[in-house]
Every structure is written in C-alpha cells, then in structure tokens.
Amino acid sequence: MNIYSFSLGLLGTNCYVIEQNQKALVVDPGGEAEKLIQFFSENDVQPIAILLTHAHFDHIGGVEELRSHYSIDVYMHESESEWLTNPQLNGSQRFQLGEIKAEREADHFLTEGMTAIDQFEFKVLHTPGHSPGSISFLFESEHVLIAGDTLFQMGIGRTDLPFGEHQTLIQSIQVKIFSLLDETIVLPGHGPKTTVGEEKEQNPFL
C-alpha cells in the first residue's frame, strides 16, 4: 500500500491517495482536482472512491469534479449529509469564498467499525468535536490513521466554528485515538504528520 499526500485548495488541505495494485481511495480532495487527475493519469492509477473525514468547505472542493470525471462514489458520516450541498453548513458562505459545494449528497454513509471498499479494508472511528460528523480512517496493517482536522502535530482541531464542541473533541482524541498503538502514524488534515506516541507526550492541548 502506498500513501501519497497533496496540499490542495485555498487552505492547503492535505488530500491523501491510498494506492494498492493500481487502484486508489481519495481522502479529502479539498480542491485543484486537476492535480489529482494528472497524477492518476501519469501513474496509471484508477480511483475507486472518495472518502471524507468531514464536510467543511476546505475538504470538499474537488469532490464533484473527481466524482463526475471518474464516476465514483463518495463516502462520509451521515450527520453531515446535507453539508456537501449547502455552503452555509460547510462554511464556504461564512468565509465569503463563493459557493463551494457538490451537486448532490454523498452516495454512502460510514459508521463506526470495520469496512471494506473493493480491496481496501479499514476501520472507521467516529471522532466528533471539530464537527459532528468527523471520522478518522485507521489502516491497521499499515499503522496509519488519517485523522482529518481532529488531531494535528502539536495541535487539535478548532472548535469555534458552528457545531464544534471542545470537550467532545478532547474526548474523541483521548478515547479513540490515544487508545491506538504509540507508533501509529497520524496523517492530519493540515500540516505535517505525527504519531500517537508523540502527541500523548508533547501535545500542549492534551
């Protein structure tokens, strides 16, 4: 399994491409879909699904172009089902960035626990706080967690946006993420990667 990272969109959101046997999952395509399309073309990789850690505008900007270009499905948590198509809920209207949205809601909703998409198996962790539908994706065999905006290197997700809850975020991190092996690599929604162990020991917010 190979994991590629792209910094996309106005806020430099980390988009991750998880590739195996020339097929790929795309996590949080925040914008600039043409860069991803070029990557897939040049490397003869076929994307098969889009996964969203949550539906804030800076994580969904490339969803519609990728979904329509490759005729692939979008997966996310049901509690943010309306956010993909609603600029007021996903925050793009609030920050006066124009309407960032998808044409329709997600095709599938993910719940806590193990799931499989084609050849990919991973565990979904519901990690609300930054937003009510925030989820993290754990690839146990690789010891990798894609955490969205829940946990950063020496930081945590902001909770001052609508529907954010600070105590809920702290609980998500302590119960869901800090229970993982210390060597688990954490791939955040923004900034550099870290590990569970490093954040347990050094994160000033925790």
UniProtKB/TrEMBL annotation:
InterPro entries: MBL_Glyoxalase_II, Metallo-B-lactamas, RibonucZ/Hydroxyglut_hydro. One of its GO terms (molecular function) is hydrolase activity. The keyword Metal-binding applies. SUPFAM superfamilies: Metallo-hydrolase/oxidoreductase (SSF56281). It holds the Pfam family Lactamase_B. The keyword Hydrolase applies. Residues 12-190 form the Metallo-beta-lactamase domain. Coiled coil: none annotated. Keywords: Hydrolase, Metal-binding, Zinc. Its cofactor is Zn(2+). This is Metallo-beta-lactamase domain-containing protein.
